[in-house]
Structures are given as structure tokens and as C-alpha cells.
Amino acid sequence: MSTDPTGALLPTTTRALRHRLLTEQSEHRLPSVAAGVVRGGRLVWADAAGTLDGRADGRASDADTQYRIGSITKTFVAVAVMRLRDAGRLDLDDRFEEHVPGSAFGRVTVAQLLSHSSGLQSETDGPWWERTPGGGWDDLVGPARPVQRSRAGRRYHYSNTGYGALGELVARLHGASWLEVVQRDLLEPLGMRRTSSRPSGVAAPGLAVHPLADLLLPEPEHDAGAMAPAGQLWSTVQDLSRWAAFLAGDTGGLLSADTLQEMLEPQVVSDLPGQPWTAAHGLGWQVWNVDGRRYGGHGGSMPGFLAALQVDLASGDGVVAFANATSGMGPLARDLLAELADREPAEPAPWHAGGVLPEALELVGAWHWGPARSEVRAQGGLLVLGEPGVGRGSRFRRVGDDRWLGLDGYYADEPLVVVRDATGAVSHLDLASFRYTREPYDDARDVPGGVDEAGWR
């Protein structure tokens, strides 16, 4: 039975979401599938279809049923790493060996491990780790193991082994296991009490569905040992919806907005031959660019389970979805987001007056970079040059007297300096050495290279 905990969605919307869920379970032959929609940081709809054991008379799932979330586990490990960075315990450019010495891949950086650009092998050298119990760190990557497949930084190459390494890094720097750190620093403060390393309470069994017959095969469940940071956690619709709200910006003070934004910036694209670039990886989060809209999140799979978490980064709407099947779930999360956006688009944030710094007012208006004209506006405490995302359009934050810093676009992290004349009036803008003047090539404003003495003609 579907639920709308807050009464926030229209009945027609909840019926459409339920129909999509029922279709997914039926057409893809999934024993059970469960999903939830997050809006405004709250779970506003949850539903499930099928039964946990795949039989007609079996137990139904609900928002408090645990499923294994697979690689979504990696996002918790990544946030734990970024919290260490923000606390000054490490730098993203640090080589792995500076914190965990003795491995064969110690020269790769923390950032490369987070973004799957380290070149590390994707799986272990031992038996299929997703189906067999794991050993300790030395069993995973001893110093003699040849684990580097390609030059670090060359390309995107998904590496489960790399997140086993990051889990070890978190453990070494905290003096506690990666799981203890994640539970103490993330799960408990966020109230995610039904997220755990092994199933507890009502939990879906992991099942494989025969490709040519209506038959089921139970999949093994185990402790992955040193590989656990790559895919060990179990969670529920209710709990993982809180993590979707975290990704949408409600971090509960556990991570700064700037760090979350940094994690969502594409570091390396998933370059598939003959296909356009639509997917990339940030620092722990997967990011997608679909028809001009940006999504963040992560997928997950382990034998017997599939999971998805996706958030529309513009609207903040999010979806979590689970199935207890080894394969078969389609783009359910994206489809549910699209259904929500089509039927009930997120309301735009209201405009309010205010928030303009007095220092910005004397800078608004037309400016010229050579003959090219741009407009500077003061909005929300920032300076806005042109249209952000178009050409050299960028936003700037004040960092000192007559000093601003680019936030995005061509001038991201570049300095903008307001230059004044002898009277204290604004003369021109020095933007990363480029001269912006009120008039095109104003010869009274010390344009580098000079201005032809005869002027415009």
C-alpha cells in the first residue's frame, strides 16, 4: 500500500508513482521493489510492490524493510573522508601511502581514489568478493599485489578495491573501524537507526531470478571484510531518504555546503565509445547530465539486491529505490523523478529584496572587456558578471576590501580586484589580469598594451 506521510502530493501523482512501481515489479520480474520520494527534505511518498520472498502469499515490503544498498555505501565512506579533509587531517592531493603505507599503489592520491581515477583494479585478486566472506587488509592488497591497471589520472575506471582502501584510510586516521566512524559521525546524528552492516529486523532476502523460468535462487549474505566499505551497508526507504535529503543540502551541520558542492563537481567523465558524455564521477558521488539537468546520487548492486539514490540538484527532489533481485531493475529512480516533476513541478524559490552588499552597488552596470560588453549585477550578496554558465559569465564572492573571488565558470577561484583612482572612485576592474573598463578600451584606464593614439575610427 502506498503512503503519503505528509499529504504533500496530489492523489493523481501518488497513483501515477504507484503505477510506475507496479509496472517495474511486473515487467522486470522482481520479487519485491520499494521506493520513496523526497521533497523539501522529507519523505513525501513511499510504496512497495511484490513480496519479499517473491511468492503470491508472501510478506509485503514497506518503508522500514531493509535492503542491501551495495555501492551506495561508498558515499558514506566518501563523506567520512571529506570530513577528515575539512578537519585538517589530510589533503586530497596526499598520496595514499602517506596515511596507509605498504601497499603497491601508494602513489595514487586520495582524490583519485574518491573519483575512481586511480587506475586501481576494479575487483580483488581472490574469489568473487561479493559472494564470499572477506579477509583483512593484508589479505586484500598486500605489498606484492599488482593492483594498478593503468596510469593514475588517465581515465575513469570504477574500483571497488579503491574504496576498500579508503575504508582502511578512515580507520587508520580515526583509530576505529570505518563502520564505527560512519555509525558515530553520520548515521546516529542523522537518525538513520535502520542502516547497518548486516540485516536486522525485517529484511528482504537476496534473490536471483532465473532468466527463462519463474524460479528463484537465494543469494549468499556475508561480511565482506576489508571490502565492506565498497558495498556492505543495508538500509530502508525511510533511512535512505534522509541520506537523499543530505545530498540535497540538508546535511544537519555534518558537512559544509561548500564541501558538498565540491563532492558533486565532476572529476572524471565516464567515456564510452560512440556515446555522448552524460555520466561522471565526483568525489564519492555519481553525477549525471541529462537533457541539461544535473542529478547526483549513486547506484548499488550486490548479489540479490539492486538500489538507487538520485537527487535533482536544481529542485532538491530525490528518489530512493530498492529491489531484492540480482538483476533486472530499470531506470526506476529517474522515471519516478520525471513523473513527479511532470505532475507537480517543484515550486521556484520566491524572490525577496535585500542581501545586496553596499560595496557591490558602485560596481553594477555595464563593463567592457576590450570591445565585448558585459553587465554586472548585485544579487544575493554576490556580484554576477554576465550570465553564469554562458561564455565567461561568473559569480563572485567578496573576500576583502575591493577584492572578490570567482565561484564558478571561467573565472572560478580567480581574483577580481577593484582598482580606484586618486579620488577613491572606481577606475576599472582587474579580473585575473584582464582589464574591464566602463568604456571599450578606455585609454584613461591603463589598458595593458596601450590604446592606439588615434582612437576608434
Structure overview:
The protein is an alpha+beta fold and 457 residues long. It has two domains: 1-350, Beta-lactamase, CATH 3.40.710.10; 358-437, Beta Barrel (Lipocalin). Helices cover 22% and strands 23% of the residues. It contains ten helices and 20 strands. It has helices at 11-27, 73-86, 110-114, 137-140, 160-174, 178-187, 237-247, 257-263, 332-343, 358-361; strands at 32-39, 42-50, 67-68, 207-209, 216-218, 234-235, 268-269, 279-281, 286-290, 293-302, 305-312, 318-323, 365-369, 372-379, 382-385, 394-400, 403-406, 415-420, 426-431, 434-437. The strands form four sheets. Strands 2-1-12-11-10-9-8-7 form an eight-stranded antiparallel β-sheet, sandwiched between helices. A hairpin with a 2-residue loop joins strand 13 and strand 14 (372-379). Helix 2 crosses helix 5. The longest helix is centred in the N-terminal third of the chain and has 17 residues, at 11-27. It is globular. 39% of the residues are buried.
